[in-house]
Design goal:
This protein is of the alpha+beta class. Helices cover 29% and strands 37% of the residues. The chain is built from five helices and seven strands, in the order βααβββααβαββ. It has a seven-stranded mixed β-sheet, with helices on both faces. A hairpin with a 2-residue loop joins strand 3 and strand 4.
Length: 153
């Protein structure tokens, strides 16, 4: 498996994973905008079969936001999401972040456990954030000095 920057040629495979993973998927245009946004980082996990997963992050000044993370349903539970998240958090891009935020469906326990494993903690709730079905989002935050759950102090 190889983790690398997302390229425009990856977008059709990424959109297919997105469509299989979310009830309100991003469009191709949304992914192209992130690829070309100088404040964003988009990575893919590539296997022999092609793109198996992706992560997108965006930065405003010194705060980052994990916008999207998904793995193809047939490739789940193989550590791909862990590798993508680790690569993003270990990147020079993340070094510029004072805090890293994300939203996750309240019912998505597997994703919440993954983020907690990396040291993210719950800091709030966005009521009725998700549609189809309507559901609350759990807001999670990571202080990069605590990446991996260990303090660098």
């Amino acid at each position: 498996m190889k983790i690398r920057l997302m390229e425009p040629s990856d977008v059709p495979e990424v959109v297919e994973i997105e469509r299989l993973s979310f009830s309100t998927p991003w469009s191709e245009l949304s992914f192209y905008k992130e690829i070309y946004n100088p404040r964003s980082l988009c990575l893919v996990a590539e296997t022999e079969e092609g793109v198996s997963g992706y992560i997108c992050m965006s930065r405003v000044i010194d705060e980052c936001h994990i916008l999207n993370l998904a793995v193809h349903p047939f490739k789940r539970r193989q550590g791909i999401a862990t590798m993508l998240l680790k690569a993003a958090l270990d990147s020079e891009y993340a070094d510029l972040c004072r805090y890293i935020y994300l939203e996750v469906r309240a019912s998505n326990r597997a994703a919440r456990r993954l983020y907690e494993k990396f040291g993210f903690r719950t800091v709030g709730i966005r009521r009725n954030y998700y549609l189809n079905p309507v559901e609350d989002a759990i807001i999670m935050m990571l202080e990069p000095c605590r990446i991996g759950g260990e303090s660098n102090s």
